[in-house]
Amino acid sequence: MSHVARKLLTIVTESALEKILPEDFKKLGARGFTITEARGQGSRGMRSGTWDENGNIRIEILCDSVTADAIAHHLQTRYYDDYAMVVFISDVMVLRPDKF
Amino acid sequence: MTSLDPVLLFFILGLTAGLMRADVRLPSAIYELISMLLLLTIGLKGGVELARQPVGSLAFQALAVIAMGAVLPLLAFPVLRHVGRLKRADAASVAAHYGSVSVATYAVATAYFMTREIPFEAHMPFLLAVLEIPAIVVGILLAKGLNRDIRIGQVAHEVFLGKGIVLLIGGLLIGWIAGYEGLASIKPLFFDLFKGVLALFLLEMGLITASQFSSLRQYGPFLLVFGIVMPLVSSVIGMLIGFNLGLSLGGTAMLAILAASASYIAVPAAMRISVPEANPTLSLAASLGVTFPFNVLVGIPLYHTMTEQLFAIARS
């Protein structure tokens, strides 16, 4: 079975953006994403996820490197200043490249 | 210690546990559920009575309340901007929180009036729902002016289809359609358990309030003073409006309480999307860290006494 290289874009941010971001992803070429609830602490303080306004999510997107860069760049210019957000990209191997 | 309601003791327990960093935490799904139960119960109670009200007076009261919700942030904004020296976006966001309402405070007030058997206009939940919205609009305008950059669709969705409005209005409609007899079958869950659910809810509110204290320390004494003085001023405005609308003593006191309360669910969610440059912890530190505990522990009995005085003066 052949493995093909793709990028895994991971975004940790406020759940306030949960309904907004998917539109951006779609426009920039992502074909799917996974959202999980998250807790943690960073430069914007403790985000314990105990109640609505304090909620945190982790979004994972598998895509090619052009899309990953485009999304990362968009997030950086549009959201970094005002929202708690961490974005990182890692190399992964996928089994079905046509899906991502 | 004559009559501290047990639900408030739950709040104090939560507050203490939170401050001591005790290992207490309501699972978030349960918190969701009980806040839904409270919103629906409050809506249902109002809906049952709503049918008996003439539509004309109801519309007039709604208009008066909308005007109040728009004026309160306009009063708060210059104070926050010039005395508190907050940035424009922050001042606008905090102002919006104080023009809107807290359903939790309303629920505690309901329990307070129930215990004392003080009647109040049963359609209050309708005014509660109405009062949630205008301050958000004013807050956005204060922060942004008529800027086209705002995602209006998204904000409108957040405001009108937020959990609070949908469940309050939904409960009102169900109560209105079903009537008191129709609701008999679901009464045990929603009405009989009201105080127990409220107690659990306030336990969590205590924990959440405690978590705001650390950010409060960061912002210094201005926010603390503002969080107490603003509801005092708002309550007088609410009381005078209620009195002039011809509400009963209970209803007038309730409107004072609604005016004094500060939002911590609907407004933060809307502000986060429409005015993202405003610091959310600042508003929450004030509304949750100061005003909510002040209102439930001191404010509600105070506004009630104030209203009694007003009615006594008016009568003599």
CATH architecture of chain A: 2-Layer Sandwich
Describe the main β-sheet of chain A briefly: 4 strands, antiparallel
Task: Estimate percent helicity of chain A.
Answer: 10-25%
Name the helix and strand elements of chain A from N-terminus to C-terminus, one letter apiece: EHEEEEHE
Return the structural class of chain B: mainly alpha
Q: What is the average per-residue confidence, as pLDDT of chain A, rounded to a whole number?
A: 88
Global structural class of chain A? alpha+beta
User: Can you count the helices of chain B?
Assistant: 15
Say how many strands of chain B there are: 0
Using only C-alpha atoms, the radius of gyration of chain A works out to: 14 Å
Question: Beta-strand level of the residues of chain B, as a percent range?
Answer: under 5%
- How many separate domains of chain B? 1
CATH class of chain B: Mainly Alpha
How many separate structural domains of chain A? 1
Low-confidence stretches of chain A: none
